[in-house]
Design goal:
Distance between the termini: 40 Å
Shape: globular
Low-confidence stretches: 405-413
Bound molecules: flavin-adenine dinucleotide
Number of helices: 10
Length: about 425
């Protein structure tokens, strides 16, 4: 049995963010993951401004991620075929980017190692138990079975969170709010250099996407709501074939576009407002806390944020009651208002008319176009206008992330 200050289960963005934050504060941290890195994670690979700012704060260098692609323009096509281009600000840092999760997550694990975290790859969590004075996580891997005990555990083990199950905190039958499908393509046409979102009438409130990657590649996929009017989750492969044949999608991907890898699907959990966020000494973060945005399915920024908040709560102490209560309060305060705003907007985009009205409003002027793109990419919180406690000077004029020359003369990374 090894004993440390904190054990983190899962080394995706949520786990890495928690582990880095704890290790930077001098804590002895072990992070275990059943996978070996680099490993794939089914994802659109899109990074919002919010995610980018947090990655920058964690010390991630975009140069360490070969597939890093900054995005300048977002193109949205409505259900009736109306298309609007939404530009992101130029020359003030990065507001949106795409980066293959295989590389992004491996780079974050490297950051964690550099910060002093002991990373045990290929070690799966096989059990977890909370006691009055500690939590014990059982792991199994190439080093054989063993146990790690610590005052606190951070469960960053994704949608199916084995830790949640071991602690008896899982909801039976829960399979996420969304189901999404992704495939990489090579040799895409020049129009796939933009980040494109298609609101297809038969997918609403879901959507299809093409997110640009370097070297003529793209991450292409679609997501649909579980239990929504598209009750065809069983036939996502069929929907996929059909989507790729649609002329406007073919036109963006180009005639030479070639699938690079098999298509893969994965659920998206989006119910931070209801999720049990802590055990007695365990803090759930990222997908294990169902923290994704229910409108867009984006969860990398939320994973990083909840990981950091959990680590800060642990660092703040003094005991498990305060640590868990602090984390629950701060995670809800950071995310629940935005979650509710997204849920309201989902109602609007469930119907063609709602999407059309929204696109008309968003595309009305240069100002609305610029600000819609920034709002969509979480440059400022989704529900900012409804939460005065988060208002501050300059909230609509902030720089993006990775600004090399800031207005105040300080350099970025
Ligand atoms: C198709 C699709 C498209 C998406 N597109 C986007 C997008 O464009 N942008 C965006 O921001 N978000 C997107 N998301 C959501 C995003 O992928 C997740 O919200 C994000 O990965 C959550 O990060 P995480 O660290 O919580 O979990 P994960 O990234 O899932 O990491 C969990 C880790 O836990 C490990 N693990 C699991 N079980 C065990 C075990 N027993 N023992 C040890 N380790 C274990 C896994 O190996 C994994 O490494 C998308 C999701 C899907 C499905």
């Amino acid at each position: 049995m090894s004993r440390v200050d904190a054990v983190v289960v899962g080394a995706g963005p949520a786990g890495a963010a928690a582990a880095i934050t704890l290790a930077r504060a001098g804590r002895d941290v072990v992070m275990v993951d059943k996978a070996r890195f680099p490993r794939d994670k089914i994802c659109g690979d899109g990074l919002t401004t919010g995610a980018l700012r947090l990655l920058e704060g964690l010390g991630l260098d975009p140069a360490s991620v070969p597939s890093w692609q900054a995005v300048e323009d977002v193109v949205v096509r409505g259900p009736a075929g109306h298309q609007v281009s939404f530009p992101l600000p130029q020359g003030r840092g990065t507001y949106a980017a795409v980066a293959r999760r295989t590389e992004l997550d491996a780079a974050l694990v490297d950051r964690a190692r550099a910060a002093g975290v002991t990373v045990r790859e290929g070690h799966g969590c096989t059990g977890a138990a909370e006691h009055a004075d500690r939590v014990v996580v059982d792991v199994e891997g190439p080093d054989g079975p063993g146990a790690i005990e610590a005052p606190y555990a951070v469960a960053a083990d994704g949608m199916w969170s084995p830790v949640r199950k071991h602690l008896g905190l899982a909801t039976p039958g829960y399979r996420g709010e969304w189901h999404a499908f992704r495939q990489y393509f090579t040799s895409v046409g020049p129009r796939a250099a933009d980040l494109v979102v298609w609101f297809e009438p038969d997918l609403l409130p879901g959507y299809a996407w093409s997110f640009p990657l370097p070297d003529g590649r793209a991450n292409v996929g679609f997501g649909i709501q579980r239990g929504g009017k598209v009750a065809r989750i069983q036939d996502m492969a069929g929907i996929w074939r059909e989507l790729l044949d649609r002329p406007h999608i073919r036109e963006v991907l180009g005639d030479d576009a070639t699938p690079e890898s098999p298509h893969r699907a994965w659920p998206i959990p989006a119910r931070i407002d209801e999720a049990v966020l802590t055990g007695r000494r365990t803090l759930f973060v990222g997908d294990a806390a169902a923290a994704t945005d229910p409108l867009t399915g984006e969860g990398i920024g939320q994973a990083l944020l909840t990981g950091i908040l959990a680590a800060e709560a642990v660092l703040g102490g003094p005991g498990p009651g305060t640590v868990t209560a602090t984390y629950r309060r701060r995670a809800r305060s950071a995310l629940v208002a935005d979650h509710r705003m997204s849920m309201l907007l989902i109602r609007a985009v469930r119907h063609r008319k709602g999407v059309r009205a929204g696109m008309r409003l968003a595309g009305a002027t240069g100002w609305t176009r610029r600000n819609f793109a920034r709002w969509l990419f979480e440059d400022y919180p989704r529900a900012l206008v409804a939460t005065p406690r988060r208002w501050h000077r300059g909230m609509f004029t902030g720089d993006g992330a990775y600004t090399t020359e800031r207005a105040d003369g300080r350099s970025g990374t």
